[in-house]
Amino acid sequence: MWVATVKPTILLVSTNSWLSPVRLAESLADLGCAVQAVCTPRSALSISSAVGSTHHYRSFKPLLSIDAAIEAAHPDLIVPCDDLATAHLHALYERKTCNGPLLPLATAALLARSLGSPASHPIVASRQKFLALAREEDVLVPDSALTPDLNALDEWLAGNGVPAVLKTDCTSGGQGVRIVNTGQQAQVAFRELASRRAMGRIVKDILADGAGSTFARVFRREQPLVSAHRFVAGQDANVALACWQGEVLAQIAAVVLETRSPNGPAAVIRLVENSQMSDAVKKIVRRLGLSGFVGFDFVIEESTGRAFLIEINPRATQSCHLQLGSRSNLCAALCASLSGSAAAKKASVTRRETIVLWPHLAESLLPAHIVDNAYFDQPQNDPEIVRLYGSNKGARLSNVMRSLWRAARTRAALARRSS
Questions:
Q1: Which of 8, 10, 147, 355 could form a disulfide with 4 if both were Cys (CB 3.0 to 4.6 A apart)?
Q2: 316: left (phi over 0), alpha (psi -120 to 50) or beta
Q3: pLDDT, mean over the chain
Q4: What does DSSP say about strands 247-259 and 234-244: parallel, antiparallel, or unpaired?
Q5: Are residues 249 and 368 in the same domain?
Q6: What is the CATH number of the domain that holds 283?
Q7: What is the pTM of this model?
Q8: Residue 237 in contact with residue 277, Cβ under 8 Å?
Q9: Phi and psi angles of residue 49, each rounded to the nearest 5 degrees, phi first
Q10: Closest by Cα among 320, 403, 358 to 43
Q11: Tell me: the pLDDT tens digits for 233-263?
């Protein structure tokens, strides 16, 4: 039986400029883990005090750069922090199994240990395949179908009506989701989702996230697949969990009160207990044999209170770092399974049910009752990160990333001079 070292090494894989991995790194370091990261030069991970070493993620040579980071870090566990990172790790494993011995057996075993059963890879990468599997497990999901062209979309709408939701695979943050209320809107949204984006939009994305992942996808000529889903009127909800070999170790369930953008990630959540969601995620995790951090998105139907499962995020999500007591400390539970020891006992960081996730929305955008009663999550042991971002809650993310990038370059230059 494989058991991690007393102080396990965790390698975070981040391909963009999201700030949430910084909070995950801090929680893991607080539990005694040695945290390393493979990330872009602009990533906040590159200057976080919680990260011991960083490795350069190269968007045009992603697998090679991640493989090199794995060899250098010798991690006990790999954690993808975004969807593209998950896709890269799946591709690394596929190279080993389908294209000959391109990876050491130890690396293949590490990937399987970190993510769970490799048989799950094609399922979690496809919204339609995932929902089909959920139906097999008697989990409540919206009616949906793959719509490869406009004729298929029109046929589906004729039988299911509007409003409807159109989605593409391999997207996140609401970028690949459109809610449509008429057939004409559906056709416009389909053309937008199914086409490769214009060069101006690509350049804008590169400037915003500090990586060429979007550009690289265009050169690989990826064609997005669009599926249509029945719209469920209700409240968005999610479950973040830690799991190990198909078993749920700990979970955090919440409803979403505010998002960062239309159809985008959560900005404010309220903790809840919901047996429908808990039972659903246990079935899916067991069926897919998952390990690591995973997130599930739901909609709680307004008229019936039923929880519809709509999506899986096979990666660390925004609330995975929260330490909310023994049953809801995902990092502690995962580290305990990794090392074969009892989970570290940490007091909950808050008794409040409403949590404003970091980076915070500007207080002017939040209702007064949230500002007065919520717990505002933010880095506690990362003064450099807080200095660069903490007081300017309403700043645009791209401006923050440029500041982080300049700070990282300055620190690297000072290190070279002193060496």
A1: 8
A2: beta
A3: 85
A4: antiparallel
A5: yes
A6: 3.30.470.20
A7: 0.85
A8: yes
A9: -70, -15
A10: 403
A11: 999 999 999 999 999 999 999 999 999 888 7
